[in-house]
Amino acid sequence: MTILVTGATGNVGRHVVDQLIRSGARVRALTRNPATANLPKSVEIVYGELTDPQTLVPALDGVTAMHLITFNGADSAPLQTGAEIVALAEKAGVRKVTLLWNGERGPVEEAVEASHLEWTHLQPPVEFMSNAKEWAESIRSEGVIRHLNGQVLSAMIHEADIGSVAAKVLMEDGHAFKSYTLTGPEVLSIPDKLRLLSAEIGRDIQFVELSAEEERTKMRQAGIQEDVIEYVVGWYANPPEESYLLLPTVEQITGRPARTFAQWLAENREKFI
Q1: Which residues form the signal peptide (predicted)?
Q2: Do residue 81 and residue 18 come from a single domain?
Q3: Full-model pTM
Q4: In the chain, how many domains are there?
């Protein structure tokens, strides 16, 4: 059984690869840059570009299951090549696919749902724990983070838990045509996160709350598009309930509790010091 992991060098993809290896699977990792993949030696690393489906033909040879991202790794835009990818997967004999889903049905989701593939949606909350890396530079240099709406709540998830669920779904039966919403085990505000971060690195961290206009200015200086800026500002002004709703899905599927933010920080401490 060969399982193809797309987005294999990303924050989530690396964990999908690791968890599949631990489960004894034969893993083939798809990446645009095989020379810099830095994945375990037992992984077969292959070149492929999801925006150019014909490059996937060699990667799909002999594959029976696949973890599929639904966005372009270059700019995170929704992939427009879903129909072509799915057609090639079916022709190659792929039976099962997990989709890392962002909650909106795009061309990949539509093509997979219309196919003969056994699909499973993996839908994390809005935030991964790895998003905290965005604070690393200002914490190291100033001991400060600057952010919108400090009281916004998040049930953010450890990327390894997504990897664990994906591995279970790809290697076991009983998950076909289901959508799993995955959350962490706790709901945290930004001050909660900074309290845990301060305890981990042994340093006080100051929180500076930005106004909506200050956030817009910061994002414009970073070159972010206006529609994305307005989406982010609007989201923090009125976050959806699902961003702070706790669900037991990770433990139900994997048999162990979801990892905490404190665990993530202990694993990534060196990034903040």
Answers
A1: none
A2: yes
A3: 0.92
A4: 2
